[in-house]
Amino acid sequence: MENLFFYIAAILAVASAGSVILQRKVMYSVLSLIVALLAVAWMYAMLSAPFLAVVQVILYAGAIMVLFLFVVMMLKYEKTEIQRFRPGLLWCTGLLVAVFFLMKLICVVNRASSLTPKVTTLPPDFGSIKSLGGVLYTQYLLPVELTGILLLVAVVGVALLSGIKK
Amino acid sequence: MLAANQYLMVGVILFGIGVIGFLTRRNVIVLLMCIELMINGAGLAFVSFCRQTGSLDGQVFVLFAMVIAAVEIAVALSIVLLVFRNRATLDVDEMEVLKW
Asked: What is the mean pLDDT of residues A136-149?
């Protein structure tokens, strides 16, 4: 049963990710990216990370993709028509480099996963909000605070860039 | 229970599709979306390793990665808006002022 759910999610994720890079219209790419992100959230939920799955849906498929949709609808790029792929031999070289990189990556990841120790039993509250929050606010307290500062800097930067007049 | 290896492969494939799109597409918004795909592939690898080793550190990293992705996209999209306002293009091959 879990196998079936995994294969549905995996096929959905890979197919919609492929659709992101193959669509001619950017709006369709954005919509297929939303499907891919939801499929990844599904896999997070199956990998005993329910909190991450919820955050993925709210933050990625919610907030970030709404930003993308806003920008795509704001820009009238349909009039300045853009080709899908880069000109000349550039896209061909890019594809070759990417495929080579992907094959290398598969070898490395396979090796790493066979070297990592496997645990057979997980604690029953593994990945719950309580246990994740316990790790986050004790061991990773400083990075959490720094992330807050980063968010503040980003808010100021975006306000400055998007042209609030003095 | 399914082996975490299969989830890992899906993560790698998502990352690879992101790299392919990043190197071949021309539209700068699609390039940003490919970065999102790569971040998600890496996140999936983090979470599946985390399930395999039984530690929660990977899930915390994915949380940080999500926040940083949100920040990055907000800043990048406002830069894209500025470039479009000044140059009226979204083609990465025409954004070459910094190149020479």
From this structure: 93
Provide, as residue numbers in chain A, all residues whose Cβ is less than 8 Å from the Cβ of B40.
Answer: 36-37, 40, 60
What average pLDDT does this structure show over B15-38? 92
pLDDT above 60 (res A91):
yes
- Answer whether residue B53 shows pLDDT above 70: yes
- The predicted-structure confidence for B78-97, as pLDDT tens digits, reads as follows 998 888 888 878 888 888 77
The H-or-E segment that residue A4 falls in is helix A2-22
Residue B26 C-beta-side C-alpha neighbours within 13 Å = 21
Structural contact between residues A72 and B29, judged by C-beta atoms closer than 8 angstroms: yes
Q: Closest approach of chain A CAs to the CA of B35, in angstroms?
A: 11
Q: Which of residues 11-70 of B touch A (CB under 8 A)?
A: 12-27, 29-30, 32-34, 36-37, 40, 43-45, 47-54, 56-57, 59-60, 62-64, 66-70
Look up the pTM and report it: 0.89
Binning chain A into helix, strand and coil, the percentages to the nearest 5 are: 75, 0, 25
**A49-89 per-position pLDDT tens digit:** 899 999 999 998 889 999 999 888 888 766 556 677 877 78
What letters, b where the CB count within 10 A reaches 16 and e where it falls short, cover A17-32? bbbbbebeebeebbbb
Of the candidates A49, A113, A154, the beta carbon closest to that of B74 is on A154
